[in-house]
Please model this.
Amino acid sequence: MQVMTDLFARIFGDGLSPLGLLVAGGLTMALIMALVMASCAIVFTWAERKVAGFIQSRYGPMRVGRWHGVLQPVADMVKILGKEDIVPQDADKPLFMLAPFVIFVGSLMAWAAIPFAPGFIAADLDLGLFYIFAVSSAATIGILMAGWASNNKWSLYGAARGAAQAVSYEIPLALACIPVVMITGSLNMNDIVIAQQGGIWRWHFLHDPFLFVAFLLYFVASIAEVNRGPFDLPETESELVAGYHTEYTGMRFAFFFLAEYANLFLVSCVATAVFLGGWQPLFGPVFLPGLVFVIKAVLLVLLQMWLRWTLPRLRVDQLMHVCWKVMVPLALVCVLGAGIWMLATGQAG
Model:
């Protein structure tokens, strides 16, 4: 945000007070992040259809736009926004109308602490990693609100599944990041990325065997956290129609759609910053850092899409078994092992 504040200071000179510069810089960064979220929904929708088509030996969208149906997501978005906004008669109307915005705002706030490039971060917080986990949890509240307020049993089942899944998988997700915090001694996202400069062998996922396993645990838990296949039980169309957003249409459904793809990119950005060197290149000096960061995150998104269209959906009991009896114990072993590794190699301060 400092970049925007300095830019407004040069444009307006003494015309804006320090508070005014801060507000203008904050609003501009929030607008940029919202545009990034919208871009994620458009680009990744098209990419996911093409990935699904490739895996299923078909073309995917080909008609809208001049090249491979590239404008299909734009046509779909226009169609969604043009649909009638329906609120069920027996719904809890205030909660029903508020739920999509709670999910959207929770995702938008988490973007503020992502370091896309040196100096390009909306909020350079000392507790940046903790902040991301805290505000992104607001999505769970929005899911519960949507399921309860819809007054529909399928929505309520989907919301209960979504809340249980999110609360469960947040534990291995956070535990997997603790070894990185132990090594860097900081929760600041910029500090975590800077600690990995010097080439791929300095990236945290190759630091030691325990961090490599921690990265895999984070990746699997992040897929479950954003309700993507094979962990998409809150929205299983064959069982629950569409889960907690079954009753939503038009603009309100678009907010759920927007938040889903934005969260998909968000967890990939966190993995990039924490484990994959952030804007640091494989070798050599830093060149086009923002582009390097985005390429790494997009590759992780494509890997998640590949897994979604390849693996079968888990049952509810399998979902909880994987979390509590496999991933949480493994994550605790990684935390303990990383600490012992630091003591054995003299890295403990």
